[in-house]
Write a structure and sequence with these properties.
This protein is of the alpha/beta class. The chain is 38% helix and 19% strand. The longest helix is centred in the N-terminal third of the chain and has 22 residues.
């Protein structure tokens, strides 16, 4: 499951410590899967029973998460009661649950990953002390869900981040960091089965049934994004290749004379492309972390303190 490092201008756990959170996410994901799978196979939550037998003063929803919390919490939070600490830890942690009946292991996996996706969005919009108001559309964003659920844990995803370039905010599209490559991605998704006729002009032609309309040439935004990312890498001496992709999951792209530095992926080969990336066995690498940090250093963040956030949380 790819890790959602930055979602638009929302505050993210990964901004606190990029080298620490990816490893913790993987450990938490694997641990909770074992717990849920065991509960499904044996009809009871072995972890919960083990916790129930512990003395009251050592019960913890997750031991390593508790240690992390105790190390990083602010002095003011250290003065809170044990109950308050538990509530804060629960905000940080993730505990999957069995809901409904699942006929086979595949159904169980789907239910589990759906919960994990919701948790990803929380991590990408909150920290222990601050939170951003997340747009409800992201909970049903099929592309975001597909990229996070289908790609390996070693992939880092920036989904429409807002970055600062010469102090001015710039909205980018999708940046996907594999262990060895940075993918800058622009997406064309309007009507299903639409055909996009590409050219070097400022506008492309979109055909949908009998209708023909002009759309802004996606290579313009794509080239701008590549230049911005390259400038971030150059400033931090990051040596990582950048590939530019135009993707249409539900339509077709006809781009005669496609420049060699741009790859088009449409309905015909999107799933094959995704499957190829999903089979990448490479673990996370140092250069990949440097690249992600170089981008994070320039992202814009809009958030509010949890201490002063009195509004009701957004329904998920």
């Amino acid at each position: 499951m790819a890790q959602l490092v930055k979602l638009v201008d929302y505050i993210s756990r990964y901004e606190n410590d990029l080298t620490r959170y990816p490893t913790q996410f993987i450990r938490l994901k694997r641990y909770q899967w074992k717990r849920v799978k065991n509960q499904w196979e044996h009809g009871f939550d072995l972890y919960a029973e083990q916790t129930a037998m512990m003395p009251e003063n050592v019960k913890e929803p997750n031991k390593w998460f508790s240690m992390f919390f105790n190390k990083w919490r602010k002095p003011k939070l250290q003065e809170e009661s044990a109950t308050d600490d538990g509530e804060v830890e629960e905000e940080l942690g993730f505990e999957a649950s069995l809901t409904g009946s699942h006929a086979n292991i595949e159904q169980l996996k789907k239910a589990y990953t759906d919960q994990l996706f919701q948790f990803q969005l929380k991590w990408a919009s909150s920290t222990l002390y601050d939170r951003s108001r997340i747009d409800a559309k992201f909970f049903s964003d099929t592309l975001l869900k597909q990229l996070t659920l289908r790609l390996p844990d070693s992939f880092l995803l920036f989904y429409y981040p807002i970055v600062k370039v010469n102090k001015a905010p710039v909205e980018l599209d999708i940046i996907l960091l594999s262990p060895t490559t940075c993918y800058c991605i622009t997406v064309l998704e309007d009507e299903r089965m639409a055909a996009y006729i590409g050219s070097s002009d400022r506008f492309w032609l979109k055909k949908f049934g009998e209708e023909e309309v002009k759309v802004l040439n996606p290579t313009i935004a794509l080239s701008r994004m590549e230049k911005v990312v390259h400038s971030f890498f150059r400033a931090k001496k990051v040596d990582m290749p950048i590939k530019k992709l135009i993707i249409s999951r539900n339509g077709y792209i006809d781009y005669p004379g496609t420049p060699y530095e741009i790859t088009t992926i449409d309905k015909k080969n999107y799933l094959d492309w995704l499957a190829k990336l999903s089979s990448n066995p490479s673990p996370m690498k140092h250069t990949q972390f440097k690249a992600a940090q170089a981008i994070l250093d320039h992202t814009q963040t809009t958030a509010m303190s949890r201490l002063f956030d009195t509004e009701e949380p957004i329904s998920e």
